[in-house]
Amino acid sequence: MIRAHEHMNSQAIRQKFLAFFKERGHTIVPSSSLIPDDPSVLLTTAGMQQFKPYFTGELDPMEYFKDKDGNPTRNTVSIQKSFRTSDIDEVGDESHLTFFEMLGNFSFGGYFKEKAIEYGHEFITKEMGLSIDYVSVFEGDSEIPADAESEKIWKLLGVKDIRKFGRKDNFWGPTGAEGPCGPTTEIYVNSALRQAQGKPPVEVWNIVFNEYYQRKDKKLEKLKTPGVDTGMGLERLAMVVQNKPTIFETDLFVDIAPDGLPTNMDVRFKRIMLDHARAVAFLIADGVRPSNKDQGYILRRLVRRMMAHFHRAARGSFSTGDVLGMDFIDIERLLVAAVSKYGDFYENLKKETMLLVFREENERFRRAINNGVRELKKVDEVDAKQAFKLFESYGLTYEILKDFAGDKAKNLNRQDFDSEFAKHQEISRAGQEKKFGGHGLILDTGELKAGNEEELKKVLRLHTATHLLQQALREVLGKEVGQRGSDITAERTRFDFSFPRKVTLEEIKKVEEIVNQKIKEDLPVNFVELPKAEAEKVGALYFFKEKYPEKVKVYFVGKTLETAWSKEFCGGPHVKRTGEVGKFRISKEEAVGSGVRRIRGVVE
Ligand code: GLY
Questions:
Q1: Whose alpha carbon is nearest atom 3 of ligand 1?
Q2: Residue-wise pLDDT tens digits, 168-216
Q3: Does ligand 1 come within 6 angstroms of the Cβ of 303?
Q4: Does residue 287's CB lie within 6 angstroms of at least one atom of ligand 1?
Q5: pLDDT tens readout for residues 261-319
Q6: CB neighbour list of residue 3: distance below 8 Å, 6 or more residues apart
Q7: What is the rounded distance in angstroms from the CA atom of residue 446 to the CA atom of residue 429?
Q8: Which strands sit side by side in the sheet containing 525-531, from one edge to the other?
Q9: CA–CA separation, 218 vs 138, rounded Å?
Q10: Atom of ligand 1 nearest to the CA of 173
Q11: What burial letters (b/e) apply to 413-435, b meaning 16+ CB within 10 Å?
Q12: Which residue lies with its CA nearest to atom 2 of ligand 1?
């Protein structure tokens, strides 16, 4: 028998979820970026991350959120793009993913256990038409009492099977180095098909009662106002609603490979390819570009692993054949399909950007790979040192070595490789410090460096010119231009930004003209201090890698913040008026990585 809900596709589930909570006094908040503000976390791993300041009381939700009738509310609902690198080695089984969508409802001092559990129960049983197999609650330990209240609420709702677990299973958080956390109650559901196949129920919904704040030293403090934070993976929910054996048979994945994947690829690798295609598409959409650092390094590994597997599927083996001749059209198809499957619901998924970034990385990898495979053949055993060398010189990632080097890499493990990698990064950082340290600089913000008063004046002019440059680049090349780094000395400014191709001479001329026009207008340069969320609201640009405090300075060029032509999160200092900058000229434009361009500019 096919139940009515089996035909509900993922988009219908999303809409039902948002509508359900909107109807019950929640504000719908869009997903935040996969790149979080919290510098202690590389990627966004949960829906609650963007709401941390409301849980802690730093920001008052009533000032920011309104319900459907326009009244202030303490409750929000979101569908958050999430990424868990911790699960990367598990991907390929039936339920683990790197990228996933998390449905969540939140309350910052509004409702608590009773309502949160009732909402969960009603949504799962009525809206989704599922029956709850069992639920779990926190059993208590020496520090935190058992959650008898949740147990009682579930009983009143008629749930019979209530299991009790400890910290490992029923306590959640914090994300990053510190933050809100607390005991959880979890809902387990199965589909008829899975049950018939003897598969166990899956945890679909995690309802967290944020009662504590875990400090950096791991000590727990009671939060002033307890809150609710829930997380439900859309993929798992779709699996049980649509009555599928694994998440990979839901429309979320079937629609991105409607014609299937190469038949000679085994099922584990097919799943890895489907997972990675979505992950790659969403990382690129949020501005990540392949590199050997941080988020860029994650993206690079995902792309290269896909290439290696499609190459093997096409040529029968990874170590023979000419990689240079391959076009990897299958991967491009997956990426384009991901854009069309998800592009209506999520922002910034653009086919052109996707393909440009992929093709550039593709080119880099092809150039390195044949030598890499040759080198790999020469070694008898790949240990961590050897693996790092193969990565650094020939682009063979850890995952590729594990997937393809067979017995040679059997003793290689992620921990050893990661520590080799970290060692190397420390050495290059130390090199940087040596270059600039101990020279008696009178200004050194990391971004700005000046050795004496004269240099300082020049640096301030170049700094303001850099803000004008960024805004002019966005006007000429589009909003996808985002800062990737900047470095200013008395000689020049150096500005790195995301953009997928070479900037033409004509475009460079146009950018220079705009900057010089703004200089001619002699506009005032001022700053205001604002809470970070406010600053984002007024549209101030910021550099996503930078660590910003809760209150930030926004430098703006123009008479008022509202009418300003350029607005940026920035610590300063700057000149007082643009007229002081002088004449600006771009002296060089070049690539510094896939999808990252570098401009050097001077003032005269
Ligand atoms: N924040 C709840 C969860 O990620 O499960």
A1: 231
A2: 999 998 988 889 999 999 999 998 999 999 999 999 999 999 999 999 8
A3: no
A4: no
A5: 888 889 999 999 999 999 999 999 999 999 888 899 999 999 999 998 888 888 776 66
A6: 129, 192, 243
A7: 13
A8: 525-531, 551-557, 566-569
A9: 19
A10: 1
A11: eeebbeebbeeeeeeeeeeeeee
A12: 231
pTM (predicted TM-score): 0.73
Q: Is 204 in the pocket of ligand 1 (CB under 6 A)?
A: no
Distance of CA 229 from the midpoint of ligand 1 (Å): 7
Decide: 207 in ligand 1 pocket, CB within 6 A.
no
Per-residue three-class SS string for 202-245: EEEEEEEEEEEEECCCCCEEEEEEEEEEEEEEHHHHHHHHCCCC
Segments of 235-297 assigned E as strands: none
Which of 77, 80, 185, 229 has most ligand 1 atoms within 8 Å of CB, for mutation? 229
Pairwise CA distance, residues 300 & 593, whole Å: 11
Question: How far is residue 89 from each of residues 172, 253, 398, 550, measured CA to CA in Å?
Answer: 22, 19, 11, 35
Q: What does the block give as tokens for 467?
A: 């803000």
- All structural domains of the chain, each given as residue ranges with its CATH number in brackets, are 10-251 (3.30.930.10), 255-432 (no CATH), 440-603 (3.30.980.10)
Decide whether any atom of ligand 1 lies within 6 Å of the 227 Cβ: no
Amino acid letter for position 296: G
